[in-house]
């Protein structure tokens, strides 16, 4: 069995950012190891070379936090030459290139490239890359449904009335994520926003939600699954492709907890998901409100069945099958 070293180019203490979270969870599957090294700040990667000797991996999977920039391709090429290992690159957000950079990319091909959007797949294939699409994953043991009694207990723990209809969103509190849309229907529902500790927040949005009776938590929650479990619906309103990874982890986490999910047709979602089993598309405020009404009528939610197709183990198997 091959050994894989998952390499990410930043060190963090908390896993509330999508790319870092992706790397950490992927490394927990099979014979995989995780290494966070601030190689973006270094030219010669001495610590990386020491760790390669320590883990002795057969392959290195590099997940750049800046995604597939020209610098990421250059760095991957250097890592391959310095470590004498096969290197695989995973890009979790799309990037655009001018003609000069596009021509340069053909000189910086990793052994294999994984992307999440079909448009990127076609672009890199056209430029001669070995490339495949890969979804995000979810920890099905951590994120799981609870019964009504457990849900009520969680509401008490977080001081939320069991009578409230709780609408949840998790992610950085920034206008780039279209978060202000929650202000427009905060009067009729209990809005619960969980912000990021690793990215700046928009204080105005936070205060507007709070002033309308909503709840904003902008601290790291190690038991984040409880927040999904106490909620009634998860809404992902993001439209800007640079504001989240292409297949947002929070959507799968919500589904794994068997929450109804309402989402924009964002990034890679339409390549991997379809509207079914309490998962709905909504790109406008009217569509979101209409879908909330549908959710309130639902007797049986089945989004957990969708999430079961995307365990981290299945993501790892997909990578291994392509590589081998």
Architecture overview:
- This protein has 324 residues and is of the alpha/beta class.
- The chain has helices spanning 18-26, 46-55, 70-83, 99-105, 118-126, 148-157, 203-211, 225-230, 249-256, 269-272, 285-297, 303-307, 312-323, and strands at 4-8, 32-36, 59-62, 86-90, 112-115, 131-133, 166-170, 190-194, 215-217, 233-236, 261-263, 279-281.
- The strands form 2 sheets. Strands 2-1-3-4-5-6 form a 6-stranded parallel sheet, with helices on both faces. A 6-stranded parallel sheet has the order 9-8-7-10-11-12, sandwiched between helices.
- α9 (249-256) links the parallel β10 and β11 (261-263).
- The protein is globular and about 60 Å long.
- The protein starts with a strand and ends with a helix.
- The mean pLDDT is 91.
Low-pLDDT regions: none
Instruction: Note the overall shape.
Output: globular
Distance between the termini: 11 Å
Largest beta-sheet characterization: 6 strands, parallel
Helical percentage: 25-40%
Order of helices and strands: EHEHEHEHEHEHEEHEHEHEHEHHH
- The order of strands across the largest sheet is 2-1-3-4-5-6
Count all strands and give the number.
Answer: 12
Q: Total helix count?
A: 13
């Amino acid at each position: 069995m091959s050994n894989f070293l998952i390499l990410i180019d930043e060190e963090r203490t908390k896993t509330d950012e999508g790319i870092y979270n992706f790397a950490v969870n992927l490394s927990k599957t099979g014979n995989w190891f995780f290494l966070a090294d601030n190689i973006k700040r270094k030219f010669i990667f001495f610590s990386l070379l020491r760790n390669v000797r320590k883990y002795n991996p057969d392959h290195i999977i590099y997940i750049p936090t800046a995604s597939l920039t020209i610098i990421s391709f250059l760095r991957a090429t250097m890592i391959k030459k310095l470590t004498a290992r096969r290197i695989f690159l995973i890009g979790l957000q799309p990037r655009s290139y001018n003609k000069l950079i596009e021509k340069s990319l053909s000189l910086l091909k990793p052994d294999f490239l994984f992307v999440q959007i079909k448009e990127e797949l076609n672009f890199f294939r056209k430029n001669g890359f070995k490339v495949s699409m890969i979804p995000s994953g979810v920890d099905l043991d951590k994120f799981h449904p609870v019964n009504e009694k457990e849900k009520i207990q969680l509401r008490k723990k977080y001081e939320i009335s069991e009578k409230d209809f709780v609408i949840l969103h998790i992610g950085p509190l920034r206008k780039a994520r279209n978060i202000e849309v929650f202000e427009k229907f905060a009067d009729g529902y209990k809005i619960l926003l969980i912000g990021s500790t690793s990215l700046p927040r928009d204080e105005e949005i936070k205060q507007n939600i709070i002033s309308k009776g909503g709840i904003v938590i902008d601290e790291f929650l190690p038991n984040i699954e409880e927040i999904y479990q106490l909620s009634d619906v998860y809404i992902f309103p993001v439209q800007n492709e640079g504001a989240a990874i292409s297949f947002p982890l929070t959507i799968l986490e919500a589904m794994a907890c068997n929450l109804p999910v309402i989402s924009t047709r964002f990034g890679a979602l339409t390549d991997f998901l379809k509207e079914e089993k309490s998962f709905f598309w909504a790109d406008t405020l009217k569509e979101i409100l209409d879908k909330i009404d549908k959710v309130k009528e639902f007797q049986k939610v089945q989004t957990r069945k969708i999430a079961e197709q995307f365990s981290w183990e299945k993501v790892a198997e997909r990578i291994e099958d392509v590589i081998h």
